[in-house]
């Protein structure tokens, strides 16, 4: 039989109260806007991240360098045959971030609504303190055996 019972929230759990800060990775690679793009690509490849936040000296995000952004280097070298450039030349400057105290459910919705594979996580001072990836969220959800978020309001008040 191919029937799998629906995974549900447990009444006595705090699964709905989980924040991004609790799931994010605190160990992540970041890059500097003035860094050579070749060095940044090596960092991303070695870290197995899908990209890296670009941070200023105060650790505030000024951009994000994705794998897709890095692939632009290939076309630039082919057509322009010049110096590879810096991270700032290739990064996406309109960076989207998640607040550390944001609910995991809201973060999941952000991943669904956008094509991003990772979000920098910021504190109250807008400094990047972590990175939340799709993979990290899936690992977390899988670890608590939950795939159904069903009616969030009834789960919170215990009326499910």
TrEMBL record:
Highest rank taxon of the organism: Bacteria
Record-annotated CBS domain positions: 24-80, 91-147
Keywords, sorted A to Z: CBS domain
Signal peptide region: none
Record carries keyword Repressor: no
SUPFAM superfamilies cross-referenced by the UniProt entry: CBS-domain pair (SSF54631)
InterPro entries: CBS_dom (IPR000644), CBS_dom_sf (IPR046342), Diverse_CBS-Domain (IPR051257)
UniProt keyword annotation of Signal present: no
Record-given protein name: CBS domain-containing protein
Lineage of the species this protein comes from: Bacteria, Pseudomonadati, Bdellovibrionota, Oligoflexia, Oligoflexales
């Amino acid at each position: 039989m191919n029937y799998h019972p629906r995974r549900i929230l447990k009444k006595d759990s705090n699964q709905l109260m989980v924040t991004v800060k609790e799931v994010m990775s605190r160990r992540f690679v970041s890059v500097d806007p003035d860094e050579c793009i070749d060095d940044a690509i090596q960092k991303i490849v070695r870290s197995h991240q899908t990209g890296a936040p670009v941070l200023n000296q105060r650790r505030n995000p000024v951009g994000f360098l994705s794998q897709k952004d890095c692939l632009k280097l290939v076309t630039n070298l082919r057509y322009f045959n010049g110096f590879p450039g810096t991270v700032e030349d290739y990064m996406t400057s309109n960076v989207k971030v998640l607040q550390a105290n944001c609910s995991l459910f809201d973060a999941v919705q952000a991943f669904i609504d956008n094509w991003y594979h990772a979000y920098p996580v910021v504190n109250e001072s807008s400094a990047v303190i972590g990175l939340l990836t799709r993979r990290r969220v899936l690992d977390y959800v899988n670890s608590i055996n939950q795939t159904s978020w069903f009616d969030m309001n009834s789960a919170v008040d215990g009326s499910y």
